[in-house]
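Milestone 3.1: sequence recovery, worked example.
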């Protein structure tokens, strides 16, 4: 069932047991599914995300991660509000695009793709633009692998009383985050990233008191976060429309495996070790990373092409033949490729990967 490992930032390599969990069919109206699976997941997500779970609630939403970002912005930001998006990559930029589609009052604060978002600049902007009501930011910008300083950003935003929305798509479950301690109001992630499930739905963890005020704000039926939540809440795990039942069951298994591994802290340690072996190995072969080490997440790493003649396609297919699928780069300023460290992949896999890259004998 595993022709090659996906060293990509999601969909990613999942365990055999997560895949096996999809082998039965579920009725969306039956309590075996609603109460036995969906409600268990919602409760566990809130507990994973917050040291004060009673203040938060979880909503599951059909579709990929972007659907959940759109549902959140479209359901939490009113026409009279003003959203500040801090962007240092494609996913930050995408939040600005969503805001445009919804005709939201939105300012995009653009940062270099190769640099972390600067909390001080956000603070200065908020001090001179009191009309801003909401701030959104990406935690791990998967475009490059940069890890934005969430703690400092949250401090600046919450000190000024703004609503904080975090796209933690590629970090939640793999990098410790405490929503309550940081004051995060909405956090968005999806099934096929660090929780190590399969794609098909995403989730939003929201401050309950704020979500309760979002009734009637959404300008999309399918992506009405409030309505999705109130149906789930009142119906004890019932989704409004057909849910990806097999994917949801696989996700419950993935959560169980996260717990068995030792929780987010243990998973983070494994990803860090994967990343360390990858970067040390690649550097020993002459490759250079795009980012400086202090801005780099353990989630995904961008490497420069070693020279102008580097044939990424040939490199890609050579590694694929050896059982590793890597990822092209996504930035315009430099030729790069990316290698992910997340998923059901382990330090031994990265030791093998480096050995295979070494054998390719790329000359610099
Ligand atoms: C994966 C990801 C998303 C969502 O992308 P989809 O293709 O819609 O799943 C959003 N933000 C970040 C930071 C991501 O890594």
């Amino acid at each position: 069932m595993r022709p090659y490992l996906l060293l990509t930032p999601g969909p990613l390599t999942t365990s055999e047991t997560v895949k096996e969990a999809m082998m039965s069919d579920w009725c969306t109206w039956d309590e075996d599914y609603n109460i036995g699976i969906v409600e268990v997941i919602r409760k566990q997500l809130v507990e994973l995300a917050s040291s004060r779970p009673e203040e938060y609630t979880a909503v599951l939403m059909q579709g990929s991660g972007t659907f959940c970002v759109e549902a959140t912005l479209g359901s939490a930001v009113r026409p009279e509000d003003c959203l500040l998006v801090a962007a240092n990559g494609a996913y930050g930029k995408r939040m600005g695009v969503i805001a445009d589609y919804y005709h939201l009052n939105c300012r995009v604060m653009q940062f270099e793709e190769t640099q972390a978002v600067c909390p001080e600049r956000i603070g200065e902007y908020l001090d001179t633009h009191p009309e801003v009501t909401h701030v959104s930011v990406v935690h791990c910008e998967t475009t490059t692998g940069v890890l934005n300083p969430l703690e400092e950003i949250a401090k600046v935003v919450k000190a000024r009383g703004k609503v904080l929305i975090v796209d933690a798509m590629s970090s939640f479950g793999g990098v410790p985050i405490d929503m309550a301690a940081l004051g995060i109001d909405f956090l968005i992630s999806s099934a096929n990233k660090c929780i190590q499930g399969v794609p098909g739905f995403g989730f939003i963890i929201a401050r309950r008191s704020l979500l309760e005020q979002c009734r009637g704000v959404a300008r999309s039926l399918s992506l009405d976060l409030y309505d999705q939540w109130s149906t789930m809440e009142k119906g004890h795990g019932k989704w409004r429309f057909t849910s990806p039942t097999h994917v949801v069951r696989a996700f419950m298994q993935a959560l169980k495996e996260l717990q068995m591994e030792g929780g987010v802290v243990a998973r983070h340690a494994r990803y860090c070790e994967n990343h360390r072996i990858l970067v040390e190995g690649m550097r020993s072969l002459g490759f250079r990373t795009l980012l400086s080490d202090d801005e780099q997440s353990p989630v995904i790493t961008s490497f420069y092409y070693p020279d102008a003649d580097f044939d990424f396609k040939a490199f890609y297919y050579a590694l694929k033949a050896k059982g590793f699928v890597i990822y092209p780069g996504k930035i315009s300023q430099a030729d790069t490729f990316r290698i992910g460290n997340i998923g059901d992949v382990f330090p031994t896999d990265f030791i093998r990967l480096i050995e295979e890259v070494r054998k390719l004998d790329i000359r610099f």
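The first helix runs from residue 16 to 20. The pocket of pyridoxal-5'-phosphate is lined by residues 9-10, 64-66, 91, 138, 142, 167, 169-170, 190 (CB under 6 Å).
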